[in-house]
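FAQ: What does the model actually see?

It sees only this:
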Amino acid sequence: MNYTWNWGIFLEPSPEGVGTYADMLLSGLGWTVATALSSWVIAFTLGSVIGVLRTLPSKAANAVGTAYVELFRNVPLLVQMFLWYFVLPEVLPVGLGTAVKQMPDAPFYTAVLCLGFFTASRVAEQVRAGIQSLPRGQRMAGTALGFTTAQTYRHVLLPNAYRIILPPLTSEFLNNLKNTSVALTIGLLELTARARSMQEFSFQVFEAFTAATVLYVLINLVVILGATLLERFVAVPGGR
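And it is asked to produce this:
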C-alpha cells in the first residue's frame, strides 16, 4: 500500500477557512463533550426516576417503569436517532414541526434528547439493581423513623444505592460519551464527523482517525480518573 504519511496536516489551514485541521478536531471534541454532558443530565435524572418507579410497591408504577425501559432499551440507538430527527417533526402540528426543523443547532438538541432518553433506560436498570441490593432493614428503618416513602428514598435508599452503582454508572457515562458518534448521521459535527471531514478534505485518513482515537481515549481516561476519585470520596468508612 502506497500511503504518504503527513503528521503536519494538523497544522495546515482547514478548507472551512477558519483555523487548522487541529482546530477542526478540537471543535468536534467540544461538541462531543457538550452532547455527552447535556444528555447525561437527562439520563441520570430520568433514569433515577424510572429506576425508583420499578422498585415501588405500586403495580402501576412498576408497569410504567418497565414499559419505558423495554421500549427505549430494545430499539437500536441509530433507529431512535432517525425517529427523533426525521419522524418526530413530521408527526407534530405543522407549525411546531416546522419550528423544530428550522431550530438553530437542531442536530445537537436532537442528539441530546435521543441519547438522554436512551441512556435513561440503562441508568434506570442500574438504579433499580442498586436499590434492590440493599438490605430490607434499610427500608424498614426509614419507616420506623416515620419517613414517608419519598423521604425514605431521598435520605436512606438512594444515597446508599448510588454508592453501590457508581462503577456501572461510570461505564454508562462512557458508553453515552462514545454513543455521541452516532449523531454524525443527523449532521452533528462532533469528533467522529470532524475526523471524517478531515479525511475527505485531505485524504489523510490514518492521521485523522488516529487523532480522533487519541482524543477519545484521553477524555475517557479523564472520566475514569474522576470517577475513581469520586468513588473514594463517597465510600462508606470501613466498607472495604
